[in-house]
Amino acid sequence: PSFEEALAEARRLGVPFISDDRVRFGQGAVIVLVARHDLLGRAAADEARTLREEPERAQRPRIVPGFEVWVDLAAAEALGVELPLPFLARVDRLKRGRPGPRAGERAPR
After folding, report:
1. CB-based contact 25:97 (threshold 8 Å)
2. In degrees rounded to 5, what are phi and psi of residue 102?
3. 0.90 cut: is pTM over it?
4. Which helix (H) or strand (E) is 94 found in, with range?
5. Are 30 and 72 in contact (CB under 8 A)?
6. Which phi and psi (to 5°) does residue 106 adopt?
7. Is the pLDDT of residue 95 over 90?
8. Among residues 26, 41, 84, 106, which is most buried (max CB within 10 A)?
9. SS3 69
10. Tally of CB atoms within 10 A around 91
11. In which band, very low, low, confident or very high, does the pLDDT at 64 lie, cut at 50, 70 and 90?
């Protein structure tokens, strides 16, 4: 499903919408999981060196070595979701993004 369809379904169910698309932060997703690009670049460079030195070696599964948790308080409020304070205290970015439409409303185009 598209982002908009998944967001509408989360709103219909009354659950926080979680995304891994950093571009969508502030567009209705309550929680966005973002790859740590500093660690991702280092992991990619290490893998490239290994492949150059040992081209016959089988590739390892690709993993994200770390991520950040971003929370949009306006999106949580629009859903009527109250996130626990201990969780909010540990997030990497806490922001009041552009409020998305409330449950049952259409997003502006």
Report:
1. yes
2. -70, 165
3. no
4. strand 93-95
5. yes
6. -95, 145
7. no
8. 26
9. strand
10. 14
11. low
Which stretches within the chain are classed as H helix? 3-13, 37-53, 73-79, 85-90
Phi, psi of 47, deg, nearest 5 = -65, -40
Residue with tokens 């994200």: 64
Tokens of 29: 């997703």
Mean pLDDT for 58-87 is 82
Pair of tokens at residue 53? 């030195």
**Token representation of residue 88:** 């909010």
107: tokens are: 């997003």
Q: Residue 80, by phi and psi: left (phi above 0), alpha (psi -120 to 50) or beta?
A: left
| Sequence-ordered list of residues with C-beta below 8 angstroms from that of 21, at least 6 positions apart, any chain | 3, 29, 32
And the tokens for 64? Answer: 């994200």
Residue type, 83: L
User: What is the sign, positive or negative, of the torsion defined by CA atoms of 103, 105, 106, 109?
Assistant: negative
